[in-house]
Amino acid sequence: MPLSRLLLFIFGLGLILGLAIWLINSILAVYQQISNPLLANLLVALVIILLILIIAAFIYYAYLGGKKTTKSTSPKISPQDKSGTAKQTLKAVQKQVEQIQDEIAKQALLKQSRQIENNLQRGEVKVVVFGTGSAGKTSLVNALIGEMVGNVEATMGTTEIGETYRLKLKGLAREILITDTPGILEAGVAGTHREELARQLATEADLLLFVVDGDLRQSEYEPLEKLAEIGKRSLLVFNKVDLYSDEDVEILLKQLRETVSEFISAADVVAIAANPRSVRLESGDIIQSEPEIIPLIKRLATVLRAEGEDLIADNILLQSQRLTEEARKFIDKQRQVKADKIIDRYQWISAGVIAATPIPVIDMLATAVVNAQMVIEIGKVYGCELNGERGKELALSLGKTLVSLGVVQGARELLARILQLNLATYVAGKAIQAVSAAYLTRIAGKSFIEYFRQDQDWGDGGITEVVQRQFQLSRRDEFVKEFVKEAIARVINHDKQT
Length: 498
Ligand SMILES: Nc1nc2c(ncn2[C@@H]2O[C@H](COP(=O)(O)OP(=O)(O)OP(=O)(O)O)[C@@H](O)[C@H]2O)c(=O)[nH]1
Ligand SMILES: [Mg+2]
Description:
Elements: H1 3-33, H2 37-71, H3 79-98, H4 103-121, E1 124-131, H5 137-145, E2 163-167, E3 175-180, H6 188-204, E4 207-212, H7 218-229, E5 233-238, H8 246-259, E6 269-271, E7 279-280, E8 286-287, H9 294-356, H10 364-381, H11 388-404, H12 407-422, H13 425-453, H14 462-474, H15 477-497
Parallel strand pairs: 1-3, 1-4, 4-5, 5-6
Antiparallel strand pairs: 2-3, 7-8
The structure holds guanosine-5'-triphosphate (GTP) and magnesium ion (MG).
């Protein structure tokens, strides 16, 4: 229960108790005055009923009512609807991918989108076995298949790549593709590569079997929670129960269920022994115990029969959303490169305009004309067609912000210091204006990129915050020195030549 609700609950309870004491006192006084005992008892009964109703209403509001509002937020969507949405998302992403100019990235993303498209038609359900090294993932797959398929070893990192097998479950139309993955949380670079592969495979699963061999460690809880957050359905498999007494198994199972109760239901936490230790009898004979995986098979069958279609649809939707995100990042990078080139060009145009102005001031109006043209071009890169008026408007409001935030003055002082170190005073005096104009145009351009990236919105902090951030970023020593060096080469030396 959140703190605010708890406080409200305590306050309400106090109020009701106070009211109750006052009411009892008053009733007692009235009761003593009424001579007819039947009437007096009736009055008391009525008051008691009233009190019970008030308390019931209060509890309903404070507890049940609160729960109801949080639960009713996700309406049930059918698998068909989800597949439809996934199809639409895929079409949209394919269009997006067409805009990518990097041919390799474009082909890779198109391939992924075709794979998702194939998944839409595929007849199997993908189950991925995931978890820490040596928890018994391979043993579990072996036990499920009923024959030895893979190395069952005690050393960490036995399984190096994802290996997939086909399974058929009674009463399930779709075939199951079960993938054994390398263990996560292993030391070393090779371990990290394997872990990446395992995580990749896990995110592609329709259903996950997360294998642990004891209580859940923080390092296991985190990936499990993250996968649940992105919408992955998991069964938590507690393996190697033959190593514990029955009581300990019960205790551990209870602990596991409590730990993951936020995102995995109790029924989805099952205890098994995929490859139990062999037992030495008193006679000296060694008996290899049979795997105990019936609870898992039963749960797997129930879940897949009831939710299989839903899980597949959810997963396809998730994959296409991830692809959209990936494509968006590529396009964003591509746009950024283009927009940066535009800024580069316009900052030197600004410098040139100011250098040619007879009055030695940073004329915000003169640069605003340049900036207006720049903003139109940057907008075009981000798919926004602005007319001249709107461009000018944006450039002017940005110019005003630069002045009001003291960025114009700040930039001037910053550049003057560096220019005077590099040039003779009389040259520096003139150059400061031009270089400052270039520098301010750059801050303006970078701010406009943020504006267009956010769909023509300055964000919560408004234009001021964006401009301030861009000024901070452009103030870094390294950057300013490089900028001035280029400015001297482009503006001042060029000026001297002409
Ligand atoms: N006692 C007991 N040992 C088990 C059980 N299941 C697996 N083991 C042992 O645990 C060790 C690791 O088993 P694997 O199946 O290779 O584990 P894994 O999770 O695939 O390991 P990696 O591929 O290295 O990540 C082996 O020695 C198995 O014999 C079980 O139910 N009980
Ligand atoms: Mg393995």
